[in-house]
Amino acid sequence: MSLLSFSPLRTRHFKESIKFIHECRLRGEGCLVHCLAGVSRSVTLVIAYIMTVTDFGWEDALHTVRAGRSCANPNLGFQRQLQEFEKHEVHEYRQWLKEEYGESPLRDAEEARNILGKYKEQGRTEAPPSAWRESSFQALPPLAYSKYPTET
């Protein structure tokens, strides 16, 4: 079974994004991951990457992202995708990354643990996402949608 065939509709962009981010980092380059508001879609891809290069589950990876971007808040659908990724696919992705690139010279797990530890020490973790999922709402920046032409 290929990694993309397990649930192509849910995580079809994860492998391509993880590969791109990882290759940039291995070359010592920066990598900008963005979407319209930088709150949900791009955050989801970064969380999937963190889950792949560490042993973090989706909630710890989310808190790690929130340490640097407090508005990070994947929508309910993306949260479910991350849960499915954690439950069914992340182990295969970790193995694929190791086979494709060998042992990483990056200290991702150590750095992520330090970031997460500091985040938790500051008491910045909220109730588990399951407690606020249905009621959470992040506003878009003013006029965000009007700045882009719409095409159908």
CATH class: Alpha Beta
Give a short account of the largest sheet. none
Class computed from helices, strands and strand pairing: mainly alpha
Mean of pLDDT: 82
The succession of helices and strands, N to C, reads: HHHHHHH
Reported CATH architecture: Alpha-Beta Complex
- The total beta strand count reads 0
State the end-to-end distance: 35 Å
- Beta fraction: under 5%
CATH H level, superfamily name: Protein tyrosine phosphatase superfamily
Helix share bin? 55-70%
Instruction: Tell me the CATH topology.
Output: Protein-Tyrosine Phosphatase, Chain A
Number of domains: 1
Sequence stretches where pLDDT stays below 50 over 5 or more residues: 1-9, 127-146
What do you see in this structure?
There is one protein chain. The protein is mostly helical. The protein has one domain (12-123): Protein-Tyrosine Phosphatase, Chain A, CATH 3.90.190.10. It contains 7 helices and no strands. It has helices at residues 8-11, 14-26, 41-53, 58-68, 76-101, 108-121, 129-132. Helix 3 (41-53) packs across helix 4, helix 3 packs across helix 5 (76-101) and helix 4 (58-68) crosses helix 6. The longest helix has 26 residues, at 76-101. The radius of gyration is 16 Å and the shape is globular. It starts with 7 loop residues before the first helix and ends in a 20-residue tail after the last helix. The relative contact order is 0.16. Keywords: Cytoplasm, Hydrolase, Protein phosphatase. It holds the Pfam family DSPc.
